[in-house]
Write a structure and sequence with these properties.
Elements (H helix, E strand, L loop, with lengths): L6 H9 L4 E2 L1 H18 L6 E2 L9 E2 L3 E4 L5 E7 L13 E8 L6 E5 L2 E2 L1 E2 L15 H18 L5 E7 L2 H5 L4 H4 L1 E2 L1 E2 L7 E2 L4 H17 L4 E5 L2 H11 L6 E3 L4 H10 L4 E7 H8 L14 H10 L4 H8 L4 H10 L4 H17 L5 E7 L5 E4 L4
Parallel strand pairs: 7-10, 8-12, 14-15, 14-16, 16-17
Antiparallel strand pairs: 1-13, 2-3, 4-5, 5-6, 6-10, 9-11, 17-18
Helix pairs in contact: 1-6, 2-3, 6-8, 9-13, 10-11, 11-12
Amino acid sequence: MGEAKGGRGAQLERTGLRPGWTTGACATAATTAACTALLTGDFPDPVTITLPKGERPAFALAYEQLDTGGEWATAAVVKDAGDDPDVTHGAVVRATVRALPAGAGVVFRAGPGVGTVTRPGLPLEVGEPAVNPVPRQLMREHAARVAAEHGGSGDVEITLAVEGGEEIARSTWNPRLGILGGLSILGTTGIVVPYSCSAWIDSIRRGVDVARAAGRTHVAGCTGSTSERTVVAEYGLPDDALLDMGDFAGAVLKYVRRHPVDRLTLCGGFAKLSKLAAGHLDLHSKRSQVDKGFLAELARQGGGDEELAREVAEANTGLEALRSCEAAGVPLGDLVARTAREEALAVLRGAPVRVDVVCIDRAGTVVGRSTVR
Protein backbone atom coordinates (compact mmCIF):
# COMPACT_ATOMS: atom_id res chain seq x y z
CA MET A 1 0.00 0.00 0.00
CA GLY A 2 1.18 3.52 -0.77
CA GLU A 3 1.72 6.10 1.92
CA ALA A 4 -1.46 8.00 2.87
CA LYS A 5 -1.51 11.53 1.55
CA GLY A 6 -3.07 14.59 3.15
CA GLY A 7 -4.22 18.03 2.13
CA ARG A 8 -6.92 19.42 -0.15
CA GLY A 9 -6.06 17.37 -3.23
CA ALA A 10 -5.94 14.11 -1.31
CA GLN A 11 -9.30 14.91 0.30
CA LEU A 12 -10.90 15.28 -3.12
CA GLU A 13 -9.38 11.97 -4.24
CA ARG A 14 -10.80 10.22 -1.18
CA THR A 15 -14.36 11.41 -1.82
CA GLY A 16 -14.45 9.63 -5.18
CA LEU A 17 -16.42 12.62 -6.52
CA ARG A 18 -15.77 14.12 -9.94
CA PRO A 19 -14.84 17.82 -9.95
CA GLY A 20 -16.29 20.23 -12.47
CA TRP A 21 -15.70 23.71 -13.89
CA THR A 22 -16.82 27.10 -12.62
CA THR A 23 -18.79 29.59 -14.69
CA GLY A 24 -15.59 31.65 -14.74
CA ALA A 25 -13.63 28.81 -16.37
CA CYS A 26 -16.41 28.25 -18.89
CA ALA A 27 -16.56 31.96 -19.73
CA THR A 28 -12.78 32.01 -20.18
CA ALA A 29 -12.92 29.06 -22.55
CA ALA A 30 -15.69 30.64 -24.62
CA THR A 31 -13.85 33.97 -24.66
CA THR A 32 -10.58 32.33 -25.76
CA ALA A 33 -12.32 30.53 -28.64
CA ALA A 34 -14.09 33.71 -29.76
CA CYS A 35 -10.89 35.79 -29.55
CA THR A 36 -9.05 33.20 -31.64
CA ALA A 37 -11.78 33.12 -34.28
CA LEU A 38 -11.87 36.91 -34.47
CA LEU A 39 -8.16 36.97 -35.37
CA THR A 40 -7.81 33.76 -37.41
CA GLY A 41 -11.27 33.00 -38.76
CA ASP A 42 -11.27 29.58 -37.08
CA PHE A 43 -12.64 28.40 -33.73
CA PRO A 44 -10.40 26.03 -31.76
CA ASP A 45 -12.53 23.04 -30.75
CA PRO A 46 -11.82 21.87 -28.16
CA VAL A 47 -10.36 25.03 -26.68
CA THR A 48 -7.73 24.74 -23.96
CA ILE A 49 -7.24 27.29 -21.19
CA THR A 50 -4.82 27.64 -18.27
CA LEU A 51 -6.33 27.93 -14.78
CA PRO A 52 -4.75 29.86 -11.87
CA LYS A 53 -3.01 26.77 -10.47
CA GLY A 54 -1.71 25.63 -13.85
CA GLU A 55 -4.35 23.05 -14.83
CA ARG A 56 -5.07 23.01 -18.57
CA PRO A 57 -8.59 21.70 -19.23
CA ALA A 58 -10.06 21.49 -22.71
CA PHE A 59 -13.67 22.48 -23.45
CA ALA A 60 -15.80 21.38 -26.38
CA LEU A 61 -17.73 24.19 -28.06
CA ALA A 62 -21.53 24.02 -27.98
CA TYR A 63 -21.96 26.96 -30.36
CA GLU A 64 -19.83 29.12 -32.63
CA GLN A 65 -20.57 32.00 -34.98
CA LEU A 66 -18.29 34.43 -36.80
CA ASP A 67 -19.69 37.68 -38.15
CA THR A 68 -19.38 37.79 -41.94
CA GLY A 69 -17.74 41.19 -41.62
CA GLY A 70 -15.27 39.91 -39.06
CA GLU A 71 -16.40 42.42 -36.43
CA TRP A 72 -17.41 39.94 -33.77
CA ALA A 73 -17.25 36.26 -32.85
CA THR A 74 -19.38 34.22 -30.45
CA ALA A 75 -18.55 30.89 -28.79
CA ALA A 76 -20.31 28.92 -26.07
CA VAL A 77 -19.60 25.97 -23.79
CA VAL A 78 -21.86 23.88 -21.55
CA LYS A 79 -21.00 24.06 -17.88
CA ASP A 80 -20.15 20.72 -16.32
CA ALA A 81 -20.25 20.97 -12.52
CA GLY A 82 -19.06 17.40 -12.05
CA ASP A 83 -20.73 15.66 -9.12
CA ASP A 84 -21.58 18.93 -7.37
CA PRO A 85 -25.35 19.66 -7.11
CA ASP A 86 -24.83 23.07 -8.70
CA VAL A 87 -27.88 24.90 -10.08
CA THR A 88 -25.78 26.05 -13.04
CA HIS A 89 -24.85 22.51 -14.14
CA GLY A 90 -25.70 22.18 -17.83
CA ALA A 91 -26.02 25.93 -18.38
CA VAL A 92 -24.74 27.29 -21.70
CA VAL A 93 -22.16 30.02 -21.10
CA ARG A 94 -21.67 32.28 -24.12
CA ALA A 95 -19.05 34.93 -24.94
CA THR A 96 -19.25 37.45 -27.77
CA VAL A 97 -16.00 39.28 -28.48
CA ARG A 98 -15.61 42.51 -30.46
CA ALA A 99 -12.33 44.24 -31.27
CA LEU A 100 -11.77 47.67 -29.70
CA PRO A 101 -9.28 50.38 -30.66
CA ALA A 102 -5.73 49.82 -29.41
CA GLY A 103 -5.36 51.05 -25.85
CA ALA A 104 -9.02 50.61 -24.94
CA GLY A 105 -8.27 47.60 -22.74
CA VAL A 106 -10.74 44.82 -21.99
CA VAL A 107 -14.34 45.85 -21.37
CA PHE A 108 -16.93 43.49 -19.88
CA ARG A 109 -20.64 43.62 -20.68
CA ALA A 110 -23.57 41.68 -19.23
CA GLY A 111 -25.59 39.88 -21.87
CA PRO A 112 -28.86 38.00 -21.28
CA GLY A 113 -28.73 35.83 -18.18
CA VAL A 114 -25.75 37.58 -16.56
CA GLY A 115 -26.54 39.89 -13.66
CA THR A 116 -25.66 43.50 -12.99
CA VAL A 117 -24.53 44.83 -9.61
CA THR A 118 -27.05 47.32 -8.18
CA ARG A 119 -25.94 47.62 -4.55
CA PRO A 120 -22.60 48.33 -2.82
CA GLY A 121 -20.77 45.79 -0.68
CA LEU A 122 -19.65 43.39 -3.41
CA PRO A 123 -16.14 43.22 -4.94
CA LEU A 124 -17.50 45.06 -8.01
CA GLU A 125 -18.74 48.59 -8.52
CA VAL A 126 -22.45 49.33 -8.83
CA GLY A 127 -23.45 49.16 -12.48
CA GLU A 128 -20.80 46.60 -13.40
CA PRO A 129 -21.67 43.19 -14.85
CA ALA A 130 -21.52 40.46 -12.20
CA VAL A 131 -18.24 39.01 -13.42
CA ASN A 132 -15.99 38.47 -10.41
CA PRO A 133 -12.35 39.64 -10.25
CA VAL A 134 -10.58 36.31 -10.83
CA PRO A 135 -12.62 35.36 -13.94
CA ARG A 136 -12.05 38.88 -15.27
CA GLN A 137 -8.31 38.47 -14.83
CA LEU A 138 -8.37 35.04 -16.48
CA MET A 139 -10.21 36.42 -19.51
CA ARG A 140 -7.85 39.38 -19.78
CA GLU A 141 -4.84 37.05 -19.68
CA HIS A 142 -6.25 34.72 -22.32
CA ALA A 143 -7.29 37.58 -24.60
CA ALA A 144 -3.73 38.95 -24.34
CA ARG A 145 -2.23 35.51 -25.00
CA VAL A 146 -4.34 34.98 -28.11
CA ALA A 147 -3.47 38.48 -29.33
CA ALA A 148 0.25 37.82 -28.84
CA GLU A 149 0.02 34.57 -30.81
CA HIS A 150 -2.05 35.93 -33.69
CA GLY A 151 -1.11 39.57 -34.04
CA GLY A 152 -3.96 41.35 -32.27
CA SER A 153 -3.90 44.16 -29.73
CA GLY A 154 -5.83 42.34 -26.99
CA ASP A 155 -8.22 45.27 -26.68
CA VAL A 156 -11.69 43.72 -26.80
CA GLU A 157 -15.24 43.99 -25.54
CA ILE A 158 -16.44 40.73 -23.97
CA THR A 159 -20.18 40.27 -23.59
CA LEU A 160 -21.08 37.26 -21.46
CA ALA A 161 -24.45 35.54 -21.45
CA VAL A 162 -25.95 32.45 -19.82
CA GLU A 163 -28.94 30.80 -21.44
CA GLY A 164 -31.79 30.77 -18.90
CA GLY A 165 -29.55 32.59 -16.43
CA GLU A 166 -32.19 35.00 -15.20
CA GLU A 167 -34.49 32.13 -14.24
CA ILE A 168 -31.66 30.09 -12.69
CA ALA A 169 -30.60 33.13 -10.64
CA ARG A 170 -33.94 33.07 -8.82
CA SER A 171 -32.65 29.92 -7.08
CA THR A 172 -29.57 31.78 -5.83
CA TRP A 173 -28.96 34.67 -3.44
CA ASN A 174 -28.24 37.10 -6.29
CA PRO A 175 -31.59 38.95 -6.09
CA ARG A 176 -31.18 39.49 -2.35
CA LEU A 177 -27.62 40.76 -2.88
CA GLY A 178 -28.81 43.25 -5.49
CA ILE A 179 -27.40 41.35 -8.48
CA LEU A 180 -30.25 41.66 -10.93
CA GLY A 181 -30.92 40.18 -14.35
CA GLY A 182 -29.10 36.90 -14.03
CA LEU A 183 -26.23 34.88 -12.65
CA SER A 184 -22.75 35.83 -11.55
CA ILE A 185 -19.64 34.61 -13.35
CA LEU A 186 -17.68 33.13 -10.45
CA GLY A 187 -14.67 31.08 -9.44
CA THR A 188 -11.24 31.54 -7.87
CA THR A 189 -9.56 28.32 -9.04
CA GLY A 190 -11.74 27.49 -12.06
CA ILE A 191 -12.60 24.14 -10.52
CA VAL A 192 -15.86 23.20 -8.79
CA VAL A 193 -15.08 21.01 -5.79
CA PRO A 194 -18.07 18.69 -5.30
CA TYR A 195 -19.65 18.46 -1.88
CA SER A 196 -21.47 15.32 -0.91
CA CYS A 197 -21.96 15.96 2.80
CA SER A 198 -21.20 12.41 3.90
CA ALA A 199 -18.27 11.96 1.51
CA TRP A 200 -16.73 15.32 2.34
CA ILE A 201 -17.10 14.90 6.10
CA ASP A 202 -15.46 11.49 5.80
CA SER A 203 -12.61 13.10 3.85
CA ILE A 204 -12.15 15.66 6.64
CA ARG A 205 -11.84 12.86 9.15
CA ARG A 206 -9.27 11.06 7.02
CA GLY A 207 -7.39 14.34 6.65
CA VAL A 208 -7.13 14.68 10.44
CA ASP A 209 -5.99 11.06 10.70
CA VAL A 210 -3.26 11.60 8.11
CA ALA A 211 -2.04 14.78 9.80
CA ARG A 212 -1.85 13.06 13.18
CA ALA A 213 -0.06 10.04 11.71
CA ALA A 214 2.49 12.40 10.16
CA GLY A 215 3.11 13.93 13.58
CA ARG A 216 1.56 17.29 12.75
CA THR A 217 0.77 19.26 15.90
CA HIS A 218 -0.75 22.28 14.11
CA VAL A 219 -3.48 21.80 11.49
CA ALA A 220 -5.70 24.33 9.74
CA GLY A 221 -9.33 24.03 8.66
CA CYS A 222 -9.79 26.20 5.55
CA THR A 223 -13.02 27.20 3.83
CA GLY A 224 -11.40 27.30 0.38
CA SER A 225 -8.28 27.76 -1.70
CA THR A 226 -7.80 31.44 -0.79
CA SER A 227 -7.85 30.73 2.95
CA GLU A 228 -5.53 27.78 2.35
CA ARG A 229 -2.98 30.09 0.71
CA THR A 230 -3.33 32.51 3.63
CA VAL A 231 -2.52 29.95 6.33
CA VAL A 232 0.42 28.62 4.32
CA ALA A 233 1.78 32.17 4.05
CA GLU A 234 1.06 32.92 7.74
CA TYR A 235 2.27 29.69 9.32
CA GLY A 236 4.24 27.74 6.69
CA LEU A 237 2.07 24.67 7.19
CA PRO A 238 2.77 21.66 4.97
CA ASP A 239 0.15 20.23 2.64
CA ASP A 240 -0.80 17.35 4.93
CA ALA A 241 -1.64 19.79 7.75
CA LEU A 242 -4.33 21.49 5.64
CA LEU A 243 -7.96 20.39 5.96
CA ASP A 244 -10.41 21.42 3.28
CA MET A 245 -13.14 22.28 5.75
CA GLY A 246 -15.42 23.93 3.20
CA ASP A 247 -18.70 24.70 4.95
CA PHE A 248 -18.34 21.88 7.48
CA ALA A 249 -16.84 23.67 10.50
CA GLY A 250 -18.76 21.40 12.84
CA ALA A 251 -17.31 18.27 11.25
CA VAL A 252 -13.76 19.50 11.81
CA LEU A 253 -14.40 20.52 15.42
CA LYS A 254 -16.28 17.37 16.42
CA TYR A 255 -13.65 15.05 14.95
CA VAL A 256 -10.74 17.00 16.44
CA ARG A 257 -12.55 16.86 19.78
CA ARG A 258 -12.28 13.06 19.64
CA HIS A 259 -8.87 13.02 17.95
CA PRO A 260 -7.02 16.05 19.33
CA VAL A 261 -4.10 17.95 17.88
CA ASP A 262 -2.18 20.56 19.83
CA ARG A 263 -3.37 23.52 17.73
CA LEU A 264 -6.18 24.12 15.27
CA THR A 265 -6.40 27.25 13.13
CA LEU A 266 -9.69 28.02 11.42
CA CYS A 267 -9.32 30.32 8.43
CA GLY A 268 -11.98 31.59 6.08
CA GLY A 269 -13.89 34.49 4.65
CA PHE A 270 -15.19 37.04 7.10
CA ALA A 271 -18.83 36.38 6.20
CA LYS A 272 -18.56 32.61 6.59
CA LEU A 273 -16.79 32.84 9.92
CA SER A 274 -19.35 35.35 11.16
CA LYS A 275 -21.83 32.48 10.83
CA LEU A 276 -19.63 30.32 13.07
CA ALA A 277 -19.40 33.23 15.52
CA ALA A 278 -23.21 33.33 15.57
CA GLY A 279 -23.34 29.62 16.47
CA HIS A 280 -23.76 27.95 13.07
CA LEU A 281 -21.65 24.86 12.43
CA ASP A 282 -22.76 24.46 8.80
CA LEU A 283 -21.63 27.53 6.87
CA HIS A 284 -23.35 26.79 3.55
CA SER A 285 -25.44 29.65 2.19
CA LYS A 286 -28.47 27.37 1.84
CA ARG A 287 -28.38 26.43 5.51
CA SER A 288 -27.18 29.56 7.29
CA GLN A 289 -27.06 33.26 6.53
CA VAL A 290 -24.96 36.18 7.70
CA ASP A 291 -26.83 37.68 10.66
CA LYS A 292 -26.34 41.44 10.31
CA GLY A 293 -28.21 42.04 13.56
CA PHE A 294 -25.63 39.88 15.30
CA LEU A 295 -22.83 41.85 13.62
CA ALA A 296 -24.48 45.09 14.71
CA GLU A 297 -24.40 43.91 18.33
CA LEU A 298 -20.71 43.01 17.99
CA ALA A 299 -20.09 46.50 16.59
CA ARG A 300 -21.74 47.99 19.68
CA GLN A 301 -19.55 45.82 21.91
CA GLY A 302 -16.54 47.12 19.99
CA GLY A 303 -17.40 50.73 20.79
CA GLY A 304 -19.60 51.55 17.80
CA ASP A 305 -22.45 54.01 18.24
CA GLU A 306 -26.07 53.40 17.32
CA GLU A 307 -25.67 55.02 13.91
CA LEU A 308 -22.90 52.55 13.04
CA ALA A 309 -24.91 49.63 14.44
CA ARG A 310 -27.85 50.62 12.24
CA GLU A 311 -25.56 50.88 9.21
CA VAL A 312 -24.19 47.39 9.91
CA ALA A 313 -27.67 45.92 10.42
CA GLU A 314 -28.81 47.36 7.09
CA ALA A 315 -25.68 46.41 5.13
CA ASN A 316 -26.14 44.46 1.91
CA THR A 317 -23.34 41.99 2.69
CA GLY A 318 -21.06 41.01 5.52
CA LEU A 319 -18.17 42.62 3.66
CA GLU A 320 -20.02 45.94 3.51
CA ALA A 321 -20.64 45.74 7.27
CA LEU A 322 -16.95 45.05 7.83
CA ARG A 323 -15.88 48.03 5.72
CA SER A 324 -18.27 50.35 7.59
CA CYS A 325 -16.75 49.29 10.89
CA GLU A 326 -13.21 49.64 9.58
CA ALA A 327 -13.99 53.21 8.51
CA ALA A 328 -15.32 53.91 12.03
CA GLY A 329 -12.31 52.36 13.75
CA VAL A 330 -14.31 49.43 15.15
CA PRO A 331 -12.40 46.10 14.80
CA LEU A 332 -15.35 43.98 13.67
CA GLY A 333 -13.05 41.43 12.02
CA ASP A 334 -11.22 40.77 15.29
CA LEU A 335 -14.50 40.64 17.19
CA VAL A 336 -15.87 38.01 14.81
CA ALA A 337 -12.64 36.00 15.02
CA ARG A 338 -12.66 36.04 18.83
CA THR A 339 -16.33 35.11 19.04
CA ALA A 340 -15.87 32.32 16.49
CA ARG A 341 -12.98 30.98 18.58
CA GLU A 342 -15.25 30.89 21.64
CA GLU A 343 -17.87 28.96 19.68
CA ALA A 344 -15.21 26.53 18.47
CA LEU A 345 -13.94 25.99 22.02
CA ALA A 346 -17.51 25.31 23.17
CA VAL A 347 -17.83 22.54 20.57
CA LEU A 348 -14.44 21.10 21.60
CA ARG A 349 -15.79 20.75 25.17
CA GLY A 350 -12.45 20.97 26.94
CA ALA A 351 -10.46 18.82 24.53
CA PRO A 352 -6.72 19.64 24.73
CA VAL A 353 -6.73 21.71 21.54
CA ARG A 354 -5.62 25.34 21.29
CA VAL A 355 -7.63 27.32 18.75
CA ASP A 356 -7.18 30.51 16.79
CA VAL A 357 -9.32 32.02 14.03
CA VAL A 358 -8.24 34.08 11.02
CA CYS A 359 -10.78 36.05 8.94
CA ILE A 360 -9.87 37.14 5.41
CA ASP A 361 -11.47 39.14 2.63
CA ARG A 362 -11.93 37.90 -0.95
CA ALA A 363 -8.36 38.79 -1.85
CA GLY A 364 -6.93 36.78 1.06
CA THR A 365 -6.02 39.83 3.15
CA VAL A 366 -6.35 39.18 6.89
CA VAL A 367 -9.15 41.39 8.22
CA GLY A 368 -9.49 39.86 11.68
CA ARG A 369 -7.80 37.36 13.94
CA SER A 370 -8.00 35.98 17.45
CA THR A 371 -5.24 35.03 19.80
CA VAL A 372 -4.49 31.35 20.41
CA ARG A 373 -6.37 29.88 23.33
